[in-house]
Amino acid sequence: MLKVGIYNTTLPNTDVVGRLRAINQALESHAWLRELFQFPASVYPGLTKLANSLGAVATTSDDANEFASDFAPGDRALLHLKANFFASGDAWRVMARAEWVDVTRAFVQQRIAQVKRLHPVSLVGNADPPDSALVLGDVAGKRWRDGLTPVQREHLLFYTVLGSANQNDRSMVSDGEDALVIFNWPGVIPYLDLLSLVGQCEWVERQEQLDALLPRQGKLRTSIAHCFKYVF
Question: In terms of residue numbers, what domain contains 103?
Answer without folding.
Answer: 4-231
